[in-house]
Amino acid sequence: MAVTAAVTAPRPVSPRHFVRLKLRILGNGFRGQTARVLLFVAGVLGGLFYAVAGFLGSALPGLADNADAALLVAALGGGVLALSWTLLPLVFFGVDETVDPSRFALLPLRRSTLVIGLLTAALIGVPAAATLIATAGLVFSAGALGGPGAALVQAVGVLLGLLFCVAVSRAVTSAFATLLRSRRTRDLAAVLLAVAAALIGPLQIALNRASTDTDWRRFLSLAEIVGWTPFGAPYTAGLEVVSGRYWAAPAKLVISAAAIVALLWWWSRTLESAMVGTASVRKTVQRTTPGAPVALLFPKALGWVRRDQFGAVLAREVRYWWRDARRRANLITFAVAALFVSAMVNFGDVIWGTEPTSDVSASPVTFALSMIFIGTLGALTLANQFGFDGTAYAADIVAGVPGRVEIAARAGAFAVYVLPLVLVIGVIVGFLIGEPGWIPMAVGTLVATFGCGLAANSMLSVVGAYALPETSNPFALNTGAGMARGLLSVVAMLASLVLAIPMLLGALFAGDAWLWLAMPIGLVYGVGAAWLGSVIVGDVLERRAPELLLTITPRR
Amino acid sequence: MKDDRFALVLRGLAKSFDGKVAVGGVDLDVPAGSFYGLLGPNGAGKTTTLSMAVGLLRPDHGQAWVLGHDIWADPIQAKRLFGVLPDGVRLFDRLSGAELLAYHGLLRGMDPAVVDQRAQELLDVLALADAGQTLVVDYSAGMKKKIGLACALLHAPRLLVLDEPFEAVDPVAAALIRDILQRYVVGGGTVIFSSHVMEVVERLCSHVAILAGGVIKRVGTLADVRGERSLEDVFVEVVGGRTATGEELAWL
């Protein structure tokens, strides 16, 4: 009866344990991984750059002794920062899941202990540190304008703001992961995700507009409103002390604290479902229709595809882009981002009401540039295509699929989804700006840049692949992978743009003739680039397949 | 290494990860028509060895031949001749069982009509017919093993390389898999599989190799390796390590 003998009360688990766990996992991850250390250092330097820039920007109004500017920077700058923490993890960056919540499912931890511990662990990281440094400039501003009392209130506000940012990013990604897991709600989640991505476009434009607008004082009323939302409240609390509205400062701090508590509660709810979801059998089992196996593999729209290696990989990829939550989330967000970028570039003036509709002067060069951008952006999702598969890619290696076939089929399947979408955007934009005559140019430009993008991103997917964690959260990333992902995206964009330079030169210098030349040239150039890319990248893949498999295998 | 008597020949296969030796030079001759058991404790290097043998992992040193074809110099020919059931590797699990089989069949360059016919038969025999329209991600661990085995068998390879085929499989399914494999060997095929379940190896294998610490410790026919004793005794002796507790764990 040894096990039933003595029962002593367990020692309490504190957030300290989570922090140490995270630091230890981070440290072990770096052991013997020079590339990862370098990436991390690059991430720290990048974060430091933004942190210092943000600090100077938010400290400047204090130095200049300008309370209105301080309010503007605090409310709008802080608000945009908090909104970025909300949206960017969903659309571009994912969340660092070094401390994976589902690992705690079997431990006897109270929900509050777990949530606070995970939040504390999430505070350890470059983005959180950079945010803290950047917003610390507001403390300086508040102190310079209103003395130590204002600075103290602002310091509390800045800390609450950081907690809000981290909590909101976790709560939102966790909620979306839960939605995407369930068959019933995942289409709704897809739509919401699209809306989230769509919000980034206007945000960008509004920022540009505000920064170029000479009469910035007319944004003060907007800043006042944002200052009362959880996004802006923590950053403007100190300024209320400066302006003498002493009642407003504690009110704003309470708003922030309440928002944080609400977010943590929300997060803890979805966290539980995420933890259970990995252990139990899911309730909704997806079934396909009965029939002959080969016919089942090929979607109806692809009935005409040859039944061979190429066709098999193509058909599986087409199925995967839709069935795999992680891939679909990527596909949707990038598609919508492209849609809105084109809309904003071409009709920004109308939408923002700064100029009357009749005065819109669409220019072929702006139009062509926006098309180049969309074509390039469209292929970006492919940059870690093998990472999505993980170890499942072993099946293709064992079967001896030639590299060229593999790359061409994957690019083809991706194009099945994205190319029509991109072309539709081009046509619609062409009609909306009242220049249907430019549509052939748009089509040529889009095909050319998309083809170049396919080639560049295929290459990166082979030489720059990284492992994605095997969790049910489609937004989860391994430690340091956020940096890798960002870097890879930038490299992919640049490479695609370099390949697409001929289209750029044509748009800039060929004059009106380009409106008609772009279509045939673009079609040939784009298809040629995609084909040549699949040959070159295919040969690289042929040599590197086992090494690629190793890099996309998650370390356990 | 053109020798038809052997289905799989390994020479000096070695692999290190971050300076840590996983496999330290493995030589193995798997005779054609044999039922070969690769035994070893956890972490012995079984999966690493088999991965290098089938071209999933590039060895630091050494070579591997499948029925006379060098897996690294002549991969297309070599890969055509074997089927693999890897362990710890995901399947393309967002496909249904039937779709997955069709995918593997077409990857192997088979005729679609033959793929359909064999896939149906395999699904029936492995009692997966009902699950044919369910996504593999929703399968139980045992069902995943079975569909993986079906994928490896589909193109009727001459050699089967199976990594832990009986892990997480219930007794009924295990008996079924044993029967399929025995019939395959009787029909002229060769099986090499890894395991640490003595009982299965003793019941099935004609040949055995014991791998520990990345090197082959014992190799030969089952009778040679076992001698007068049970395979478990030999295994424990070769591998070492304790099999009983002493004074510790008094609190249990």
Question: What report would you give on this structure?
Answer:
- The complex is a heterodimer of chains A (556) and B (252).
- Chain A has helices spanning 15-30, 34-64, 67-93, 111-123, 126-181, 186-212, 220-226, 233-242, 248-279, 293-297, 309-323, 325-351, 364-378, 385-389, 394-398, 403-432, 439-463, 481-499, 501-509, 514-551; strands at 95-96, 476-477.
- Chain A has 556 residues and is mostly helical.
- Chain A folds into two domains: 13-279, no CATH class; 303-551, no CATH class.
- The longest helix of chain A has 56 residues, at 126-181.
- Chain A is globular and about 70 Å long.
- Chain B is α/β, with parallel strands linked by helices and 252 residues long.
- Chain B folds into two domains: 1-81 and 157-242, 3-Layer(aba) Sandwich (Rossmann fold), CATH 3.40.50.300; 90-156, no CATH class.
- Helices cover 35% and strands 26% of the residues of chain B.
- Chain B has helices at 46-53, 75-80, 97-107, 112-125, 141-153, 171-186, 198-204, 222-226, 231-239, and strands spanning 6-17, 20-31, 35-39, 61-66, 69-70, 82-85, 159-163, 190-195, 207-212, 215-221.
- In chain B, the strands form two sheets. Chain B has a six-stranded mixed β-sheet with strand order 6-7-8-3-9-10, sandwiched between helices. In chain B, strands 2-1-4-5 form a four-stranded antiparallel β-sheet.
- In chain B, a hairpin with a 2-residue loop joins strand 9 (207-212) and strand 10 (215-221).
- The longest helix of chain B is centred in the C-terminal third of the chain and has 16 residues, at 171-186.
- Classes of the chains: A mainly alpha (556), B alpha/beta (252).
- Chains A and B meet through helix 10, helix 11, helix 15 and helix 20 of A and helix 2, helix 3 and helix 4 of B.
